[in-house]
Amino acid sequence: MRPFTQHSGIAAPLRRSNVDTDQILPARHLQRVQRDGFGEFLFARWREDPDFVLNQERFRTASILVAEPDFGTGSSREHAVWAIQQAGFRVVVSERFGDIFRANSANAGLLTAAPAESDVERLLTWLEGGGGVEVHVDLRACVIDWGAGAVPFDIPRDHRRQLLEGRDAIEQSLAHLDEIEAYEARRSPVRPFVSRVRSVVPDRTDDARTPRRSSSDGSPDGPVEG
Questions:
Q1: What is the DSSP code string of 119-147?
Q2: I want to staple 21 with a disulfide (CB 3.0 to 4.6 A). Which of 28, 74, 84, 208 is the partner?
Q3: pLDDT tens digits for 105-129?
Q4: What's the whole-model pTM score?
Q5: Is 89 exposed, middle or buried (0-12, 13-18, 19+ CB in 10 A)?
Q6: In 15-145, at which residue ranges do the beta strands (DSSP E only) sit?
Q7: What is the C-alpha separation between 6 and 86, in angstroms, rounded?
Q8: What are the residues facing 9 on neighbouring strands?
């Protein structure tokens, strides 16, 4: 997946709390077997309301979503994360997230930034007040900057590392492949019935050993600089 370092874009205020995954992507739209094609169904029920925030012209190209507490609760469906990404969003801001939703987001490359509740409220109020909608999110510094203000945000350390390095949980594990294989070799004589890890994931091990390129082009969301 693509490394994430920083992002600037239009931010949309979603003045709702306890947004569960069925509200993000209703169950009736989970019938396809492919991973793509979910973006058009993001918040499908709410988008029937012409006044819903994402139907407003100034937020049609938003790539940052700012919501009230407890975003992504409910079922563990990964499709909710995919729908958000496929609708063009790179960042979701909320004081709290559902744990599984947040882990799914880190594995898929979607940043879930959690500032303090008062800071989220400041940002929501500013967005609703029409003071401008351009927001900059820097994952390296863990800061959200909207010109008229800047606030820190929280993110689990392992999720931050995954996003910065552009690796999902499996790829993070494979970065330690040599250590895993050494461990398997040590226990193989006493547990020969256990398959070695290389036979389980033969198609990803070569990539795990290949060093990632560094870049100094400074482009948003570009590879992590060394």
A1: HHHHHHHHHHTTS--EEEEETTTTEEE-S
A2: 74
A3: 999 999 999 999 999 999 999 999 8
A4: 0.80
A5: buried
A6: 19-20, 64-67, 71-73, 91-93, 111-113, 134-138, 143-145
A7: 19
A8: 135
